[in-house]
Amino acid sequence: xxxxxxxxxxxxxxxxxxxxxxxxxxxxxxxxxxxxxxxxxxxxxxxxxxxxxxxxxxxxxxxxxxxxxxxxxxxxxxxxxxxxxxxxxxxxxxxxxxxxxxxxxxxxxxxxxxxxxxxxxxxxxxxxxxxxxxxxxxxxxxxxxxxxxxxxxxxxxxxxxxxxxxxxxxxxxxxxxxxxxxxxxxxxxxxxxxxxxxxxxxxxxxxxxxxxxxxxxxxxxxxxxxxxxxxxxxxxxxxxxxxxxxxxxxxxxxxxxxxxxxxxxxxxxxxxxxxxxxxxxxxxxxxxxxxxxxxxxxxxxxxxxxxxxxxxxxxxxxxxxxxxxxxxxxxxxxxxxxxxxxxxxxxxxxxxxxxxxxxxxxxxxxxxxxxxxxxxxxxxxxxxxxxxxxxxxxxxxxxxxxxxxxxxxxxxxxxxxxxxxxxxxxxxxxxxxxxxxxxxxxxxxxxxxxxxxxxxxxxxxxxxxxxxxxxxxxxxxxxxxxxxxxxxxxxxxxxxxxxxxxxxxxxxxxxxxxxxxxxxxxxxxxxxxxxxxxxxxxxxx
Length: 541
What we know:
Elements: H1 2-16, H2 22-34, H3 38-48, H4 57-72, E1 76-101, E2 105-106, E3 109-111, E4 122-128, H5 139-153, E5 161-163, H6 183-189, H7 210-218, H8 222-245, E6 250-254, E7 281-284, H9 286-297, E8 303-326, E9 331-341, H10 351-370, E10 377-384, H11 392-401, E11 403-404, E12 409-410, E13 417-422, E14 430-434, H12 442-449, E15 459-461, H13 470-474, E16 480-485, H14 490-494, H15 507-526
Parallel strand pairs: 4-5, 5-6, 6-7, 9-10, 9-13, 13-16, 14-15
Antiparallel strand pairs: 1-2, 1-8, 3-7, 4-8, 8-10, 11-12, 14-16
Helix pairs in contact: 2-15, 3-10, 5-8, 10-15
C-alpha cells in the first residue's frame, strides 16, 4: 500500500511540474482573437492565389506570396526547399461541359488533374460503358474487371464520350451536411479502441465486403499498404491507356457525394512525366450524370460538347516545401515544429483542404513573433507540397532532415526535434488531440488544453489518425500529432470539391485553433525537457 501511495504521489508531482503560464496564454488569446490575421492569410491563399496543385505555377505563386508574408512577420531562414522531382506541371486554363441533345444543359463539371486537353471544343455522342470498382479496391478484382471491360468495349469507344462510373443505387445525400461533435461523441472518441493485432501477411487479399475491406486495409503493415496503392495506380494507368488507344473523345465520371451542384475531383491517373496524360476526363454532379445515364439506357441519343485547355510540362518539375523559423534562445539547436500541407486540388480554391491549416500555422508563428515571446527552442514552420499525392513533401523533408523509415538510419537532427504539430481536417475548431499511441503525452496535453476548456477543447484520444503529414514524423519515431477538429461539412461538402472555397471557413474556429496551437507550441518550446517519445519503430523494409 505504501509503495502504491508513493507511486501515485510521484505521478501527481510530475504532473504538477508541467508549468502552464496563464499570463502568456492570456496574451496569446488576446492577440489571436482581437488582432487576428488568420482570415487574411486564408484570403491571400485562396481568393488571391487560388488552387495550389503541386508542381503548378499557381502553387509557386502562392508559395512566393506566403514566403513574403512570413518574412514580413520577422521569421528567419524563410525559403522554398526543393525535395526533388515530383511530376509534371499541370495548370488549368479553361473548360466547359454542355449537353446539346436531346435538350441543352450547361453542366456543373470539373476536369480531373493531369488529363490531356481537347484541342478546342469537341462534340460527340455519349456511350454508357461503366467500369465497376469499389471504394477500397482489391487490385486482383480491379484488374480482372478491367480485362473483361477491355474485351467487351474494344472497338466501340472511338469518338465517344464515355460514361465510366456506375450510378449509385439510391441517389441523393444520406447524411446531414454539417456537424459538430457532441459531448457523447468526444467521450467515445476518447475511449481506447479495441486491441487489434497488425496483420502478419505477405500477400494482399482484400475482402469483398466494403466494411471488412476497410478494416483489412488499415491493419496492413505500411509497406503492404503502399504496395496496394501502387498496384491500383498501375491498373488505373492501364485503364487510361486503353481509353486513349481506343480513341475515346472524353470521359465523364461521378462521385457518390457529388449532388446538388457539388463536383468532387482529384486526379485521373499518373502525374509523373514518364507516363502519358490521361484522356480528357471530367467529374459531373450526380444528378446530371444520372440523367444522361437514364437517357442512354433508353437508347435516346445524347450529344455533349466538351472543351478542356490545360498547360502541362513534358518533364518532371521539383516539389517545393515552404520553411521558416523563429530562432530559440538557450536551446536553439532543438526544434518544435508546426505544419500543414500547402497544396490543394484545383476545382475550388483549396480553402478547407488545406488553406485553413496553412493559414492557422502562419497565424501561430505570427502570434508568437508579434508577442516577442522568449522561447528556448527554435520554432520551425513547414508547409508541405505533394500531400494529396501521398504525403510526398513531408516524407521527403523527414527523410532529408531526420531519418529514413525504410532503414531507420537517423540523422543527428533526429535527437533535436522535440515534436511536430499538424493541422489538416478542414475549418473545424480544435476539440482535442490524437496521441498517436504516445500515452506519455497524455498528461502534457491534459494540462495544455485546460485553459481552453471553455472554448470546447479537451478530448484526448490514444488513437492513431491517418491521412496527413504528422505520419511522416511518426514513421521515424518522432512525436507527431494531429488535432481532433469538428467535422463541420468537410467530408460531406468541401473535401476535394468545387465548394472548397473561402466562404466555407469559420473564422471563430480558426481563431480558436490558432490560439490553442500557439499556446501548445510556446509551452513545448519552453519546458525543461523535450517531449516524450515512443520506442523507435523497426525499419519498414
